[in-house]
Specification:
Elements lengths: L20 H27 L11 H14 L1 H33 L1 H16 L6 H8 L3 H25 L3 H9 L4 H39 L4 H10 L3 H25 L3 H8 L1
Length: 274
């Protein structure tokens, strides 16, 4: 935080590194073993004909189909389309949701007034908005972006609001001694205090965005990873659908790891260790 603390008190106690290179290698090895085990289970289910061949494609068939989709440019085009929609919808919800959560968290009367409505929309499935999104925005990027925004804005705003409401009162008493007002209080006390929770809320909201984009593209778009799964399903090409599912999982994991790096910054790490 930007507030000076009394001598001898530090924002976060220096701790030893929690992961050595040997431990990280061990984690990678265990993760690889789990991946191999799941792959073997998949192959075994196909080999034993637990499900019909058309209902559960083999790993080799999925790999071949994914390579064909990638070579033709279809898969790459769908990846770019989905990433664009998720990015726009997610960024819009963050730009509006974070300030809304900060403001509502700081003002009790406003929080009490808006909390029921925020909770109402949070519990309303974003997929319920699909008919309205198509009628309002027709097909293309706009309905998918709208659905992502509706799915992520309310959980994000509520998470930030709750984080602000639980900031220890001592922070504000010290800020009062420093004569911090309005914007200075927000930037030097409130936002640094909830930054760890902001990053966590962003990661959760981002995961919701990927869940929604698949459903949105199935009914309101002519491209994208969700549309690719729907098209493969209609053509009974479950090997292609499985390939698209794997791509969605890998993209989600990759960007989540990127967001996770922000939690390791020195100015943020203290909030996780206090």
């Amino acid at each position: 935080m930007a507030i000076d603390l009394p001598a001898g008190i530090t924002p976060a106690r220096k701790v030893k590194a929690r992961s050595s290179p040997a431990r990280r290698r061990g984690v990678y090895i265990w993760s690889l073993m789990v991946f191999v085990a799941v792959l073997f289970l998949w192959w075994a289910l196909c080999y034993l004909n637990v499900f019909p061949a058309y209902a559960l494609p083999t790993p080799a068939a999925v790999l071949k189909s994914s390579w064909q989709d990638l070579s033709s440019g279809t898969l790459l085009n769908d990846i770019v389309a989905s990433l664009w929609r998720v990015a726009v919808g997610f960024v819009l919800s963050a730009i509006l949701g974070i300030p809304a959560g900060l403001l509502l968290g700081q003002h009790l009367r406003a929080r009490e007034a808006f909390l029921p409505m925020l909770n109402f929309f949070r519990f309303l499935s974003p997929l319920a908005w699909i008919p309205f999104a198509i009628l309002w925005f027709h097909i293309g990027d706009k309905p998918a972006i709208f659905l992502i925004f509706m799915a992520t804005f309310f959980p994000l705003a509520l998470a930030i609001m709750s984080a602000v409401a639980t900031i220890p009162a001592i922070y504000f008493r010290v800020a009062k001694d420093y004569h911090y007002k309005s914007f200075e209080l927000l930037t030097k006390v409130t936002f640094p205090a909830v930054l760890p929770q902001v990053i966590t809320a962003l990661r959760v909201s981002y995961g919701i965005a990927w869940v929604v984009i698949v459903a949105a593209e199935m009914v309101g778009c002519q491209d994208g990873l969700g549309y690719g799964i729907w098209e493969a399903r209609n053509g009974l090409r479950l090997d292609s659908a499985a390939g698209y599912m794997i791509v969605i999982g890998l993209l989600g994991m990759g960007i989540d790891r990127f967001l996770l790096q922000f939690s390791k910054l020195p100015n943020v790490r203290w909030g996780y260790e206090r």
